[in-house]
Amino acid sequence: MTAQQRLNQVLELVIQQGNVSIAEICESLGVSTATVRRDLNTLAEQRLVTRTHGGAAALGSGYELPLQYKIARQAEAKKAIAAAVAELVSPGDSVGLNGGTTTTEVARVLARADRLAGSGDAPGVTIVTNALNIAYELSVREHVKIVVTGGVPRRQSYELVGPLVGSSLRDFSLELAVLGVDGITARFGATTVHEGEAEASRQLASVAQRVVVAADSSKLGRTTFARICPLDAVDVLVTDVDVETSVAHDLAAAGVEVIVATPR
């Protein structure tokens, strides 16, 4: 286990339980007391947890984790979702991607897909994104044309935000906008934690013929601070579990197609 993987697991325990002792972490992860103390101090210094006497407590539920701490969460579900989303993309399509771990997985699948390899000088797929990490990772793929919006980067998520995002997209037309979200409900639609990222995602959706929300089960029925779009603006929801009957009814009423991608 790498140090980053261990930090991810420690943070996951704190988030799940709300308040956890050093002894509980030691027992769960099979590591020493000294190692746990160092890890908790590291997380506290980064303002990801609050140190308590003999352990640590989670911050508020609305707190946004940095991207590097989200990577290991629901990893298999996100890979399955990404594979299902990629099936919606045809050769030559232009696809908008916002930032996040799920859309990063989508970008990786699109980059590896042989059927999207293109021919000659024509790109197999064009990716339009406000996520710097996605643009960097795909920039070496010859068959992928990368277009990066303008904007000011957020260190928390590597996403560009601000009015330059919208002005960059004004003259584009995309076949798909694939949006990672922090929550999706019938009442509030697709939501995220940061209002600037919500606006950037909304701009991507506004120039797309179809809007696809890629959301694992932890996002279903959850509402966060900033609305991206109402539910009836979403064309397809790709998730990893069968949705509850009441949720399925709301999705059907809003005209949302549901695709369930089961992790292997």
Verbal overview:
The chain is an alpha/beta fold and 264 residues long. The chain has two domains: 3-63, Winged helix-like DNA-binding domain superfamily/Winged helix DNA-binding domain (Arc Repressor Mutant, subunit A, Orthogonal Bundle); 70-260, Rossmann fold, CATH 3.40.50.1360. Helices cover 38% and strands 23% of the residues. It is built from ten helices and 15 strands. It has helices at residues 3-17, 22-29, 33-45, 67-70, 75-86, 101-112, 132-138, 163-169, 195-206, 245-253, and strands at 19-21, 49-52, 55-58, 94-97, 125-129, 144-148, 152-153, 160-161, 174-180, 183-185, 189-192, 208-214, 226-229, 236-239, 257-260. It has a seven-stranded parallel sheet, with helices on both faces. Strands 1-3-2 form a three-stranded antiparallel sheet. Helix 1 packs across helix 3 (33-45), helix 5 (75-86) crosses helix 6 (101-112) and helix 6 (101-112) runs parallel beside helix 7 (132-138). The longest helix has 15 residues, at 3-17. The protein is globular and about 60 Å long. The model has no long low-confidence stretch (mean pLDDT 90).
Order of helices and strands: HEHHEEHHEHEHEEEHEEEHEEEHE
Average pLDDT taken over every residue: 90
Strand order of the largest sheet: 6-5-4-9-12-14-15
Tally of individual helices: 10
Shape: globular
What's the CATH class label of the largest domain? Alpha Beta
Uncertain runs are none
CATH architecture of the largest domain: 3-Layer(aba) Sandwich
CATH topology of the largest domain: Rossmann fold
Coarse structural class: alpha/beta
* Total number of domains: 2
What helical percentage do the residues reach? 25-40%
Share in β-strands: 15-25%
- CA radius of gyration: 19 Å
Gap from first CA to last CA: 22 Å
Largest sheet: 7 strands, parallel
Number of strands: 15
GO molecular function, one term: DNA binding
Keywords: DNA-binding, Transcription, Transcription regulation
Domain HTH deoR-type: 3-58
Protein name: DeoR family transcriptional regulator
